[in-house]
Amino acid sequence: MQRVTGIGGIFFQAKDAVALRAWYQRHLGIDVQPWGGAAFSWADEAGQPVGGSTVWSIAAEQNAQFEPGRASFMINYRVADLAELLAALREEGCQVLEKTESSAYGEFGWVIDPEGNKVELWQPPAGQ
């Protein structure tokens, strides 16, 4: 079974999310969008677009999105088959959260690693 196929996104919390987003935009040139982050489109060696992107986002410090994890960050990993992977992780004794989400952006599930970090698993919609 194929498990993680790439990084779908990097999310982290900030004491002043608005100011930190502005800093990254001004000093590093990240095209921060009104929703609080940016999407970096993937390209091949020749610079031609390929199907996919990596999301980068800053959230307010008091954001329930990271619970029950204890870290101020969360990495989103792309996976080929979310249901199959969650079942395998449960079978392996991992702390898999019962809640999953389905939307136009794909399927999402979560597991807590041994250090207490919430890890997001994302199966993109077909064609991405």
TrEMBL record:
Pfam families: Glyoxalase_6. This is VOC family protein. Residues 6-124 form the VOC domain. It comes from Undibacterium rugosum. Gene3D superfamilies: 2,3-Dihydroxybiphenyl 1,2-Dioxygenase, domain 1. InterPro entries: Anthracycline_SecMetBiosynth, Glyas_Bleomycin-R_OHBP_Dase, Glyoxalase_6, VOC_core. It comes from the Bacteria. Transmembrane segments: none annotated. PROSITE patterns: VOC.
